[in-house]
Amino acid sequence: MDKKELFEHMRAFPKVDLHRHLEGSISAETLVRIASKYGGTLPAYTVEKLRPHIQMDSESPGFSTFLQKFKVYRGFYPCREAIEDVAYTAVMDAALDNVRYLELRYSPSHFAGLNKFKECEVIEWISAAVKESASDFNIIVVPILTISRDYGLELARNTVRYVSQLPHGYFYGLDIAGDEVVNSAKPFSDLFAVAKKAGLNLTIHAGEACGPKNVLEAVIDFNADRIGHGVRSIEDQEVIALLRERRILLELCLTSNVHTGVIASVDVHPIRRIMDAGVPISINTDDPAISAITLSGEYVEAVTKLGFTESELKAINLQALEHAFHPDKEYLKRQLAHLWQ
Ligand code: HPA
Ligand code: ZN
Fold first, then answer.
1. Distance 314 CA to ligand 2 centre (A)
2. Cα(260) to centroid(ligand 2), Å
3. What Cα–Cα distance (Å) separates residue 298 from each residue in 113, 249, 283, 291?
4. What is the pLDDT of residues 103-153, one digit of tens each?
5. Are 273 and 76 in contact (CB under 8 A)?
6. Contact at 8 Å (CB) between 313 and 272?
7. Ligand 1 pocket, mutate which of 17, 21, 151, 291 (most atoms under 8 A from CB)
8. Ranges of H-type helices in 141-259
9. d(CA 325, ligand 1 centre) in Å
10. CA dist 154 to 65, 114, 129, 148, Å?
11. Could you tell me if 320 and 285 are in contact, meaning their C-beta atoms sit under 8 angstroms apart?
12. Tell me, what's the pLDDT at 95?
């Protein structure tokens, strides 16, 4: 198979994505289209000129450069319709890439901007748009609430308090993202206990820019069900053993790790060593628009640079399904497991 055929083959291959940010799923094309339809401030108004402001390139990786890209988006959203449109489009883009089960995480504070909109309204708009798009494009989508360490504890507390009393059907998990180098997750740990009590599953961005200690903290202090990235767990075999014993899945993201400077290139990604050590893993995009990737493209990378076989990719998808935050796992398996059996 040449590269183009392989890409088409991987596009047709059904896929699970457990770690994708709505904020980082909005392409330059979508931003330009929305700005021309609804207004909103962007650093540039053509796709080519906008790209460098929101996309990473492999030549200049860096964790803070990566996180800076989100600032363009945060100030942008001009109206309700723009927010609904990006949510609808992000789900559609995933479905067109033949993602069949998507856990889509987002921070309501991000889309609310600096008090431009109320978070409770943002949640209603995104929730409805995601449901509509999921139904239109035959994809199962489970939303996860992200809080950003970088927006401070007070805002996070208000969001978690609000979400914890929402009826069933809005969020199925809580995540903390943002800069783990500058802002420790520790002060947020009580919020995770509140969320857990309210029935939310927990995932923590850890062991990406910082080392395995943060993964240990996520497991021991936060009771995380899964870890966002956790790629640097490989630096400590005790942490690897803990993840294996407790069956905690690492949501791995290949190209994202290159763009944040965590690894030098995909061919040296430790995914296979982590998998061979018996730790559950999944392959995810993280921020497809910022990394200019699709999940199909990531599968092509996994095959061509890391030697993954189709039967390994099937097993990885089944394992991802086992660790999904969907509220009815038996239903989910009945719907999808046959795709990889
Ligand atoms: N790390 C931390 N925060 C993030 C990331 C990430 O990879 N992507 C989006 N927010
Ligand atoms: Zn992430």
1. 23
2. 11
3. 31, 18, 8, 11
4. 999 999 999 998 899 999 999 999 999 999 999 999 999 999 999 999 999
5. no
6. no
7. 21
8. 153-164, 189-197, 212-220, 237-246, 254-259
9. 19
10. 26, 14, 28, 11
11. no
12. 99
* 273-278, long-range: CB < 8 A, 24+ apart: 273/234, 274/231, 274/233, 274/234, 274/240, 274/250, 275/316, 277/234, 277/240, 277/244, 278/244
Report pTM: 0.98
DSSP structure class, residue 319: H
- Token match 């803070």: residue? 64
Which of 23, 84, 119, 208 is catalytic? The answer is: 208
* Total residue length of the chain: 341
Say yes or no to pLDDT of 300 above 90: yes
Element (DSSP H or E) covering residue 310: helix 310-322
| pLDDT at residue number 11 | 98
> Residue 214: exposed, middle, or buried by beta-carbon count in 10 A (0-12, 13-18, 19+)?
buried
Determine the atom of ligand 1 nearest the C-alpha atom of 178.
3
Convert the pLDDT of each residue in 225-283 to its tens digit.
999 999 999 999 999 999 999 999 999 999 999 999 999 999 999 999 999 999 999 99
Report residues whose beta carbon is within 6 angstroms of any ligand 1 atom: 21, 24, 177-178, 205, 208, 256, 260, 286-287
Residue 56: nearest ligand to its CA? 1
User: Tokens representing 27?
Assistant: 């392409």
* Nearest to 246, CA basis, from 219, 215, 281: 219
Whether 310 is catalytic is: no
Residue 108 CA, ligand 2 centroid: distance in Å: 15
Reported as a single tens digit per residue, the pLDDT across 38-61 is 999 999 999 999 999 999 988 999
Report all structural domains of the chain as residue ranges with CATH numbers, in order of start. 3-340 (3.20.20.140)
Token pair in block for residue 303: 């095959």
